[in-house]
Write a structure and sequence with these properties.
The protein is of the alpha+beta class and 682 residues long. Helix content is 50%, strand content 7%. The chain starts with 9 loop residues before the first helix and ends in a 19-residue tail after the last helix. It binds zinc ion.
Length: 682
């Protein structure tokens, strides 16, 4: 949730199809043609800013949504395509990053070889699962399957098909040591509600999932697939009941640190010795159970549920996770459920585009390094650096004006702002891939080994000093992130592109677009979760009860504002789930606006395209959040994502006085709030 945005339904949308309809934006700041001049800004600012664009924009058939992220992602992808497809051209030596990039891509693309190998690469893994004969062996298999695929605090990814996911970072109370964190997992559907809710849409998805499990079991040659699929979904339903919901899942106060030896008594069921040894965590003194209650309940299920059901569950997920590098029938089957049913996409993205995405994901720093050498000039780094400093200062000035804060609280808050570490463009140090074997003829093994490499890389941080400059996004990622434990932010080169940062646009646009993203990340330091961490990244309450009460009151008003937004006749937003992001949008926009005004040094901005500086600022904000999303995906996101959908993020302008002046918004218009009803936090 500390990210700026979710890379929507990652498997479908993380990067863009070049063949997709191009989005008319880039190079000129405000997209004047994208404005719907018939709409009143005061009724829906999103409709005004983006209505024209939405009217003539169709979501590509292989996409679940389209919008500003796709625009930036398309540019970055064109560059990645160039880097990857040319990596092998000079016949680079074995063991170089260029060779790894070329081979990973070629193997992924070679569907003839993948089809010819059939299920053979999966077979040894299935055989190991079939040989499991007792709970100890099952526990070891569950431990060995874990990957570093979750992150509750930085990028905030909570889903893993493995029983638990691992996150490695400094301790919540111990900023000088790294720990392994365990998070709840084990579900094939996005969230516990998908298993438990009686809503007809959820029941339909659930039935389709059961059919998907059955068909996957059939593909891997499991007899009696129908009954076994039913038992797997039944087991997952029990796991889902053991899970905490999406709001509670983020709560660091439910977290418990247990000595490794205590797991057996605190969470009986799993053979924890076997589990941690297989997970390469057998020497850790303490492990953090981020989802403590679910760890207990899920461990009990390992003891109480039939061994054969667990084996089927393991076999199913092992296959289901790897379909992209298995024969066509597997790939198609997964898409028919996760793509079509769950996300609403109509067709699978072309293989070569997926190969680009897979390669840049598996070799993230090898790619990032080449990307910034080619596409991120020192001038852009310096320009954004100056903007960041202005916005940090503006935020600090706003803090000093927050009269509701006690002096001691204000001191702590300002110390966080003063000591924040800002990473712009790319990390100081790149990951070394020397120990990762990539083979031209082994797409399956490459993916498997890349995931193991990432796991080893994360575990390698245990027992080593905490690195405050560690990066959590690739340099070529179209996103930004605040890191509460490190009190740091990453702004990758990938998001420092139009429509977020337009090197040719005037400052009004850029402060509204990327400036509000920068402000957003700074504000995460003080959102409902970020405010619980101090300048050293310790989870510690540095607020007085009065400060907290005032903060909570303002938060409640913002929750109510978002709860009132109706996405569909039967569905409103969940303002509690998205509070941290909504707070950061609001505070970030306010800080960016102040910084913009300060950058004018008392002069008035010129009128461009008939728009004042303030109008361009707010349009830059709303247009850089534009999106058009398929209904199934929008429903999924509203249920599970910590971010409000872009069109309601745009509407938060209604809390800023300057927006009313800029667009002459009057009482009676739909977004109008009386001055006292506007939410002001920082
Ligand atoms: Zn965020």
């Amino acid at each position: 949730m500390r990210r700026f945005a979710l890379a929507v339904a990652a498997s479908l949308l993380a990067t863009a199809a070049i063949a997709a309809q191009s989005v008319p934006h880039g190079g000129v700041g405000v997209d004047v043609a994208g404005i719907d001049k018939a709409a009143q800004p005061g009724d829906s600012f999103d409709l005004y800013a983006n209505g024209g664009w939405r009217q003539r924009t169709e979501i590509p058939a292989d996409r679940a949504s389209i919008g500003s992220f796709l625009t930036a992602a398309q540019l970055v992808e064109r560059r990645n395509i160039d880097i990857i497809t040319n990596a092998g051209r000079s016949n680079p030596a074995a063991g170089t990053d260029a060779r790894r990039i070329a081979d990973y891509y070629a193997a992924y693309l070679d569907t003839a070889a993948i089809n010819a190998r059939g299920v053979a690469p999966l077979q040894p893994h299935l055989a190991r699962i079939a040989a499991i004969s007792d709970r100890r062996a099952l526990s070891a298999a569950l431990g060995a399957s874990m990957r570093a695929d979750v992150d509750p605090l930085n990028a905030t990814t909570f889903g893993t098909e493995n029983l638990f996911g691992v996150f490695v970072a400094q301790g919540l109370q111990d900023p000088n040591r790294n720990f392994a964190y365990l998070l709840q997992g084990g579900l094939g559907l996005p969230d516990r509600d998908y298993y438990i809710s009686d809503a007809p849409a959820m029941v339909r998805v659930r039935d389709a999932y059961r059919a998907y499990v059955r068909d996957m079991l059939t593909l891997i040659g499991t007899p009696d697939a129908e009954a076994r699929a039913a038992r797997i979904v039944e087991l997952e339903t029990k796991i889902a009941r053991a899970h905490v919901d999406a709001v509670a899942a983020q709560d660091p106060h439910r977290v418990q640190t247990w000595r490794r030896a205590e797991f057996a008594s605190r969470a009986p069921g799993i053979d924890w010795d076997a589990f941690f040894t297989a997970a390469q965590l057998g020497r850790e003194e303490s492990i953090i159970a981020w989802h403590a209650a679910p760890v207990q309940a899920m461990s009990a299920l390992v003891a109480s549920e039939p061994l054969d059901t667990w084996k089927d569950w393991l076999a199913f997920h092992t296959a289901s996770r790897m379909t992209a590098v298995l024969p066509q029938a597997y790939d198609d089957l997964r898409f028919s459920f996760y793509g079509r049913t769950l996300s609403g996409a109509q067709q699978q993205r072309p293989r070569d585009r997926r190969a680009i995405q897979a390669t840049s994901g598996a070799l993230i720093d090898a790619m990032g390094k080449i990307y910034v050498e080619r596409h991120f000039p020192a001038s852009a780094k310096a320009d954004v650096d100056a903007m960041v400093r202005n916005i940090v200062q503006a935020f600090d000035r706003r803090l000093t004006r927050a009269t509701w804060l006690a002096p001691a609280t204000l001191r702590e808050a300002r110390r966080k702002v003063e000591t924040v570490t800002v990473g712009i463009g790319y990390p100081d140090r790149w990951r070394d891939y020397a120990s990762l074997e990539i083979r031209r003829d082994d797409a399956f093994g490459n993916l498997w080994r890349a995931q193991e490499f990432e796991y080893r890389h994360q575990l390698g941080k245990l027992g080593r000093p905490v690195d405050r400059n560690e990066w959590w996004l690739g340099a070529h990622t179209v996103n930004a992130v605040f890191l509460p434990l490190q009190n740091a932010m990453n702004f990758p080169a990938g998001i420092l592109e139009a429509p977020f940062y337009d090197r040719t646009a005037d400052p009004a646009y850029n402060y509204g677009a990327i400036g509000s993203v920068i402000g957003h990340e700074i504000s995460h330091s003080f959102d409902n979760l970020g405010a619980e961490f101090d300048a050293e990244g310790r989870l510690r309450n540095w607020w007085t009860p009065q400060d907290q009460a005032a903060f909570r009151q303002a938060s409640q008003a913002l929750i109510a504002q978002y709860n009132a937004y109706r996405a569909f006749p039967d569905l409103t937003l969940n303002g509690t789930l998205t509070l941290g992001e909504d707070l950061s949008d609001l505070a970030g926009l306010a800080a960016a606006y102040d910084a913009y005004r300060a950058s004018l040094n008392g002069r008035e901005a010129p009128v461009i395209d008939g728009l004042t500086g303030d109008q361009r600022f707010f349009l830059g904000y709303a247009q850089s959040r534009r999106e058009s999303t398929r209904e199934a995906t929008l429903r999924n996101l509203i249920a599970t994502d910590g971010h409000s959908p872009g069109r309601w993020r745009a509407e938060t302008v209604r809390n800023l006085d300057a927006w009313y002046t800029a667009f002459n918004v009057r009482p009676g218009q739909r977004l109008y709030l009386a001055p006292a009803a506007r939410v002001r936090i920082w």
